[in-house]
Write a structure and sequence with these properties.
globular; alpha/beta; 7 strands; two-stranded parallel sheet
């Protein structure tokens, strides 16, 4: 019997109540949001439940939403895969912009170790309990987090570029 989205949703809401919400099908991936305080419990449940069996962590990444309310300026996104049913799910946890932090899942999935380090390195999201949370690609001396949208995309004072080459013109042709 195939694993249906309603089965996943029912099991999660039965176990976690309001800690999981906004269930929806996005393209070919079933997605939902999780309360950041319950991320490890939900992911452990999805992995160990004999009917769900989401035993493969495909990805962990961060997203910065600078225009969102301060309580939801960052999110951590997890992609899990059930190989038996070839079913994928996406889990998103929104984090506070002033102090973005969430519990590590590297004790559940060892592969999360480097993915969480990369997310920390680029977004500054603190993974509480991570065994070695430090920069992985950028220099240790770096003080900023390059994937945050805190800086303008272009330097408006640049004089060495011609807008015509970037598809921007000021005159009508």
């Amino acid at each position: 019997m195939a694993l249906e989205n309603t089965d996943i949703q029912n099991k999660l809401t039965e176990a976690f109540g309001d800690g999981v919400k906004n269930f929806q099908q996005e393209q070919d991936v079933f997605a939902f949001e999780v309360d950041p305080a319950q991320n490890t419990a939900v992911i452990l449940f999805l992995k160990n439940n004999p009917e769900l069996r989401f035993e493969f962590l495909t990805d962990v990444c961060g997203v910065h939403y600078p225009d969102n309310d301060a309580s939801e300026q960052f999110s951590v996104v997890y992609h899990l895969h059930n190989w038996y049913e070839n079913k994928r799910i996406r889990i998103r946890a929104f984090l506070n912009g002033a102090k973005p932090e969430i519990k590590t899942v590297s004790n559940i999935f060892l592969s999360a170790n480097w993915m969480e380090r990369e997310t920390y390195d680029f977004f500054g999201i603190d993974f509480i309990g991570h065994p070695q949370l430090k920069r992985i690609l950028n220099m240790d001396e770096m003080e900023s987090f390059p994937m945050r949208k805190e800086f303008p995309m272009e330097d408006s004072g640049r004089t060495d570029k011609d807008d015509r080459f970037f598809g921007r013109t000021t005159t009508n042709c």
